[in-house]
Design brief:
It comes from Amnibacterium flavum. It holds the Pfam family Zn_ribbon_RlmA. GO terms for molecular function: metal ion binding; methyltransferase activity. This is 23S rRNA (guanine(745)-N(1))-methyltransferase N-terminal domain-containing protein. The protein has one domain: 3-Layer(aba) Sandwich (Rossmann fold). It is 24% helix and 25% strand. It is built from eight helices and eleven strands. The strands form two sheets. The chain has an eight-stranded mixed β-sheet, with helices on both faces. The two termini are 37 Å apart. The relative contact order is 0.16. The structure holds zinc ion (ZN). The site of zinc ion has 7 residues, from loops.
Length: 275
């Protein structure tokens, strides 16, 4: 992770030309625009008025640690590992992976792969970099990303909002887009008593949403129960919105006994041209 590896992903958010590292702490384009590398090591390329993202708290991020340490998402990580290509020179763009927890163990086994964590929350980008040894980019993810065309071989977007047209642009020909979506039973024990969300097939909806840009390749569904404990129960409540839980305004109690994991990891192939 250096200013040079960081710059290799990026283009200027103002004029669109490639960014280069000008020393260890500054990135710049040939038009003369300059951007600092933050003390935490990510490129801060927010320009203009960014949409107000809902802030992710340190408490939510900390709560992810005991959940992953307890192995609640080990099978999901294995499913992700199985669908992520093993090319030595892979360039993986992390557009949401539970603050790097899902991608970290995978990158540890792919020592030559490059990775860039992209997000609109400084806390999440910094935590993703720490958990997965990625480069980091803070930007307004609701608009055009200051990422070069065709620079990634894979985009990983787990339980986070997807931007299929943008993912298509920044993927190289032959690239893959890997998503994870929550099934109906995912974290069902965390729903307030008597609250049943409307049934929907999130995986099928995603396949339809991305169809113009991506072709469905394969899906792997993870459905399992895990015993909860004094550490994981409260952490599940705290971190639920970062791990695919449904948002609710009502009070949520730690689950008594066990928790259901119901996730589908889907791999898509980039179409040569959008249809
Ligand atoms: Zn520029």
């Amino acid at each position: 992770m250096t200013a040079g590896s960081l710059a290799s992903w990026l283009r200027c958010p103002i004029c669109g030309r490639d960014l280069d590292a000008l020393g260890d702490e500054v990135l710049g384009c040939s038009s003369g625009h300059r951007f600092d590398v933050s003390k935490r090591g990510y490129a801060g390329l927010l320009v203009g008025k960014a949409a107000a993202a809902r802030p992710v708290t340190v408490g939510q991020l900390d709560a992810l640690d005991p959940l992953f340490a307890a192995g609640l998402f080990t099978t999901t990580t294995d499913a992700l590992d199985a669908v992520l290509p093993r090319t030595a020179e892979a360039r993986i763009l992390d557009a949401g992976s539970a603050a790097g927890h899902l991608l970290g163990p995978i990158l540890a086994n792919r020592s030559r792969a490059g990775a860039l964590a992209v997000g609109d929350s400084p806390a999440v980008v910094a935590r993703s970099m720490r958990n997965s040894r990625s480069d980091g980019l803070l930007c307004d993810t609701a608009h055009d990303w200051p990422v070069r065309d065709g620079t990634a071989t894979a985009v990983v977007n787990l339980l986070a909002p997807h931007r299929p047209a943008e993912f298509h642009r920044l993927l190289a020909p032959g690239g893959v887009f890997i998503a994870a979506v929550a099934g109906y039973d995912h974290l069902a024990e965390l729903r307030p008593a008597g609250e049943y969300p409307e049934w929907r097939d999130a995986a099928a909806e995603l396949v339809d949403d991305v169809f113009p840009w991506f072709e469905h390749d394969q899906s792997r569904t993870v459905t399992e129960q895990h015993e909860t404990s004094g550490a994981t129960g409260p952490a599940l409540v705290e971190a639920r919105e970062l791990i695919g839980g449904t948002a609710t305004a009502r009070a949520v109690e730690p689950p008594a006994g066990s928790i259901t994991i119901d996730l589908t990891v889907i791999r898509f192939r980039r179409r040569r041209r959008p249809v």
